[in-house]
Amino acid sequence: MSALGVGVGLRAPHYDYILNHWPAVDWFEIVSENYFVAGGGALQALDRIAEHYPLVMHGVALSIGSSDPLNMTYLAQLKQLAQRIQPRWISDHLCWTGVDGQHMHDLLPLPFTEEALSHVVTRVKQVQDYLGQQILLENISTYLQFEQAQMSEWEFLTEVATRADCLILLDINNIYVNAFNHGFDAREYIAAIPVERVRQFHLAGHLHKETHIIDTHDQVVTHPVWELYRVALQRFGPVATLIEWDAHIPEFTELLAQAELAKKMMEPQMDTAVKPRYDDFS
Ligand SMILES: [Fe+2]
Questions:
Q1: Whole-number Å distance between alpha carbons of 219 and 236
Q2: Are strands 6-9 and 240-244 parallel, antiparallel or unpaired?
Q3: Hey, is 9 helix, strand or coil?
Q4: Cα(203) to centroid(ligand 1), Å
Q5: I need a surface site. Which of 95, 106, 138, 240 has the fewest CB within 10 A?
Q6: Ligand 1 centroid to 87 CA: how many Å?
């Protein structure tokens, strides 16, 4: 793996623009489940894009925290897609998305307990064994906390990654959202995450409702999240960064402008002592 730089999420409204212009973006992140199909236009577009750009796969339906058994049909589809497009890595979320065979189509929070921790760790190991590679798990945005919690969110995330030997996709916007919603210090969170586990960042826009923040992914990255990104770059180095934009999707050029902002912040780091760490991945 080489240093990836800054990527954007691959979204269907942008297929034509990308295939006609081959824009200067470092890489794309796909939503894995969108391509669990036997054929069709989306898969054709993806195959062509995969020839020109590095890709990473980001899933939303692994449901690693659920008490249901792991969905082996789902995992087989994930593995098949990975074999097809050869992503740099595969990620999903540290959450659950349903139980008793019901799918909520939402990323639901886990209680930060020892019991949930050992449950998740066991399942991450099974998934990694099946896929034959480490996966990345992402911290989600949340709007409630459990009274039963025995540790902080950052302790839970760190323990999952360490005990299961998986990697972390650190969503900087989600840290900011949760810090506001639950009243903790975002910088304390970042300072507690082990540097060697973090393989990717997410940046996204949110909606501030004064009493709480909603993680909407429907606008530009906000100023305080850029500030927190700077803090994260200082701690973790120039980690592969992705701009997420999932609703009210803009012209591709506007998305690219956000990626260029991130790149400007990242580049000084790539010229300094941190760089050799990234060369190690080559
Ligand atoms: Fe994210």
A1: 25
A2: parallel
A3: strand
A4: 7
A5: 106
A6: 18
Amino acid identity of residue 68, one-letter, is: D
| E strand residue ranges, 96-248 | 96-99, 102-108, 136-138, 167-171, 198-204, 207-208, 213-214, 240-244
For residue 96 the two structure tokens come to 């659950």
- Centre of ligand 1 to C-alpha 244, Å, is 7
Protein residues with C-beta less than 5 angstroms from the ion ligand 1: 171, 202
Ligand 1 centroid–CA 151 distance in Å is: 22
Helices (H), 86-185: 114-131, 153-164, 172-182
Structure token pair of residue 54? 């590095």
Residue 202 CA to ligand 1 center (angstroms) comes to 5
CA of 92 to the centre of ligand 1 (A): 9
What length is written for the chain?
282
β-bridge mates for residue 136, sequence order: 91, 167
State the pLDDT confidence band at 271, using cuts at 50, 70 and 90: low
Quote the CA–CA distance of 246 and 201 in Å, as a whole number: 16
**How many angstroms does the Cα of residue 174 sit away from the middle of ligand 1?**
7
Q: What are the tens digits of pLDDT across the range 164-220?
A: 999 999 999 999 999 999 999 999 999 999 999 999 999 999 999 999 999 999 899
